[in-house]
């Protein structure tokens, strides 16, 4: 095994640590990004994805780990921001030896980074990783964990959407609203159930036919469209990106018909400035790292010794946090994403400052 730290050729100067991990025998190629430990050990999932290049993998882990720092700060957690990516197709190269090799790299960081599930990794994978490191969460109930974190992720997104609906239409409900869900994976399919229970009408899409078929069977009242373009140009009140990031860009924002954007995907804005494009069109964007914090709240609770009701109560507070950020944005005359960033940065600075107080 070999570990080296590098940021050459990339803008990673704001990150505390970026670690490239490689194990030739198992085929492991991974990158762990630690953005900040100002609030405590970095916490964030492991994404297993067939990136086109190492540069793409690095770009993703830098963006995701930074987002986790802000997400954890606004969720009130005593955790900094980190993320890991494993470069490869999980359907072809994921094996027990590879996951255990990855676990040893996590262990080598000595607790600076706690990992969990993300795109391409599951509870069963975290159980394997945990055979080599104590710094893992998102484990199965059989091994003392909380199980699938997508349950509370979807619950938190629903709470954020309720707050956005209240801010836009005066009532914290999606009843009678048409919601477009892009991505019917672990989180999206659960979110659909919450929306239908609340009285919303749902239109959805996914590139994975199996995911589409699952929703067709379980929720036949959902309208399925062919792709994301058909979704965002349809007559919807709320757009919920629940797949990979970058869903909102210079091409999609001008044709978006929804008045509210609230979804589970990380890094929904393709580049800085998209939040202003949305605001200029009168579209309310509830920042992704605020509303999708339910999952990290769950895995953080697991570190304490998981209690589902306690974790769900904490995830329910996404409603209040989102509401407060939207009000602050209006008061300051800035987009909600800017208001959220300011609040997160303030907490990291103020709590991080306490590290300078000597404890005997």
TrEMBL record:
Positions binding NAD(+) in this chain are 183-188
Pfam families in UniProt: ELFV_dehydrog (PF00208), ELFV_dehydrog_N (PF02812)
Provide this UniProt record's keywords sorted from A to Z: NAD, Nucleotide-binding, Oxidoreductase
UniProt keyword Electron transport, yes or no: no
Superkingdom, natural source:
Bacteria
One annotated GO molecular function is: oxidoreductase activity, acting on the CH-NH2 group of donors, NAD or NADP as acceptor
Question: Does the record bear Oxidoreductase in its keywords?
Answer: yes
The UniProt entry annotates the active site at: 83
Residues annotated as domain Glutamate/phenylalanine/leucine/valine/L-tryptophan dehydrogenase C-terminal: 147-356
Please name the GO terms of the biological process aspect recorded for this protein, alphabetically. Answer: amino acid metabolic process
Q: Which CDD domains match?
A: NAD_bind_Leu_Phe_Val_DH (cd01075)
Q: Which InterPro entries match?
A: Aminoacid_DH-like_N_sf, Glu/Leu/Phe/Val/Trp_DH, Glu/Leu/Phe/Val/Trp_DH_C, Glu/Leu/Phe/Val/Trp_DH_dimer, Glu/Leu/Phe/Val_DH_AS, Glu/Phe/Leu/Val/Trp_DH_bac/arc, NAD(P)-bd_dom_sf
So what family is this one in?
Answer: Belongs to the Glu/Leu/Phe/Val dehydrogenases family.
Matching PANTHER family, A to Z? LEUCINE DEHYDROGENASE, VALINE DEHYDROGENASE
Name by which UniProt lists this protein: Valine dehydrogenase
Q: Which organism is it from?
A: Phytohabitans suffuscus
